[in-house]
Design goal:
Oligomer: single chain
Order of helices and strands: HEHEEHEEEEHHHEEEEE
Strand content: 25-35%
Structural class: alpha+beta
Number of domains: 2
CATH superfamily of the largest domain: Bira Bifunctional Protein, Domain 2
CATH architecture of the largest domain: 2-Layer Sandwich
Largest sheet: 7 strands, mixed
Radius of gyration: 18 Å
CATH class of the largest domain: Alpha Beta
Number of strands: 12
């Protein structure tokens, strides 16, 4: 994979037309944020890495990428209010791409994980950055497991790749091109991201465990607010809207189809 192969076949009008490629870097999000603090990057600029040494996911979890088998990139958005909630955009676009182009029945876990069955196929991290011109930009970081055949012991039971699922090896450049085109289409559409996210999730109605204020709670996921926050109900009937949660997982004793 190289910059020329990533550009060849790219059908987007804006996303990825300004492209920076790294054979190896610490994290494309880290690099993007450092650049944005020095100068403005154009809307749709993309940083792509073949490998990352310090990739990050939500909650500062590491994203393993020691070999060039993943799709790893960060997208710069200068007008993020076009689609809200912004964190749903890359997850919905990826689920749609996987389902419609690759026949992979991906589904979504709040706030922005992409799963197949009960294993994680992709992670997404959206971060805001203040630029020298005082305008806030957003860095949308994405990691997709594409061609891995095996994972480190620590994540072996919770991670999966496209190759694991289909037995096929994929050109990472093609996955990138298909995904970026779908993300651009969605970004410029009038699609209601919450409604679409709900069509691609299996969470609603499930009992989940999560960490809230350093304590574990068990709740039922009952919906998502227009802002993209998770709506839950406690065993005593009390309802809450969560803006964030850590270590959120489906409770296997109650899950029916997750």
């Amino acid at each position: 994979m190289n910059e020329a192969s990533l550009r060849d076949g790219l059908q987007t009008r804006v996303f990825g037309q300004n492209l920076m490629f790294y054979d190896v870097t610490d994290s494309t999000n880290t690099q993007a944020k450092a650049l944005l603090k020095r100068r403005m990057l154009p809307e749709g600029a993309v940083l792509v890495a073949e490998r990352q040494t310090a990739g990050r996911g939500a909650g500062d979890h590491r994203w393993e990428s020691s070999a060039p088998q993943s799709l790893l990139f960060s997208l710069i958005l200068q007008t993020p209010l076009r689609q809200q909630p912004l964190s749903f955009l890359p997850a919905v676009a990826l689920a749609r791409t996987l389902r419609e182009r690759y026949g992979i029945e991906a589904h979504l876990k709040w706030p922005n994980d992409v799963l197949v069955g009960d294993r994680k196929l992709a992670g997404i991290l959206c971060e805001g950055v203040s630029q020298p011109i005082q305008q806030l930009a957003w860095v949308v970081g994405v990691g997709v497991n594409v061609n891995q055949q095996a994972f480190p012991a620590l994540i072996r039971d919770i991670a999966v790749s496209m190759r694991n699922l289909t037995g096929k090896s994929y050109a990472i450049e093609r996955v990138f091109q298909d995904y970026l085109l779908e993300m651009e289409r969605l970004y410029h559409s009038q699609t209601n991201l919450v409604d679409t996210w709900l069509r691609y999730t299996r969470m609603i109605g499930q009992t989940i465990r999560a960490m809230q204020d350093d304590r574990e709670v068990v709740v039922v996921a009952i919906g998502v607010s227009p802002e993209g926050y998770l709506q839950v109900e406690h065993v005593d009937g009390r309802r809450e809207t969560w803006m964030s949660a850590t270590s959120l997982r489906i409770d296997r004793r109650y899950a029916s189809d997750f």
